[in-house]
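## retry 2 of 3
previous attempt timed out at serialization; input unchanged, resubmitting
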Amino acid sequence: MADLLRTRPDGPAALRRQLAGPDPVLLPGCYDALGARLVEQAGFDAVYMTGFGTAASLLGRPDVGLLGLGEMVDNARRIVAATDLPVLADADTGYGNPINVVRTVQEYERSGVAGLHLEDQVLPKKCGHMDGKAVVATEEMEAKIRAAVDARTNPDLVLVARTDARAPNGLDDALDRANRFAAAGADALFVEALTGVDEIELVAKELAGIPLVFNWVEGGKTPPLPHERLAELGYRLIIMPIGTLLAATQAMQHVLASIREHGTPMVAQDSLPAFADFTELIGVGEIQSLEADYSG
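## retry succeeded, writing output
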């Protein structure tokens, strides 16, 4: 777990090593620093900063392009500081044209993320599993990817190109875009919102040899597949962006309903973590040790 005074591990190099390993990399989603610490505590090797969850937690609004570069990078920076895990972050559309993408990559890289993904949606974008999406011309996105490659200073920073063309243009266009994005320099490809197992399998076949992202969205447009099948197909990064968000929402609804009914949290208390356990999770022991070191 990340300590206040310890040098952070090299996130990009760590994520590269995991990508080159024999098994898919599992990246549960987090939308804040606490979530990142919980993912690390659970024993995972990497974590995903979800744009959907960031919008929901910071604004209480859906993922429809309401957040800007500064807000997303600030969230990424806090998440990176809270964990020793490599962080893959949602960078939306890059927040503008290829010149904007240069600054986007620079700011995300300074935040300490191990990788980021850029998508080809028209700005303002929408969550990939919502209806009504539109995409920019393929050539425009190719230029953004080239700009991203040129902008990074650490060659290990993992650049993921995402295409949302499946919904508005069909799978053939999405596959064509993905191949062209790889040629433009993307390290991994993310074909969003596939709608059938046959499409999941076809993407794996047509893009074999290129690291692929699978977006495991509970209740989304893409059908769920077990881990073993995704590994067989060759998907290398499996992100699960909203599971923790949905779980936290349900838990908060439960305790709030109990307080509303009974007037205090007394009935719900047995289902909650102990205060001492929670404060230890968030590092009170480290703080007390530092206080002792610096006192007097």
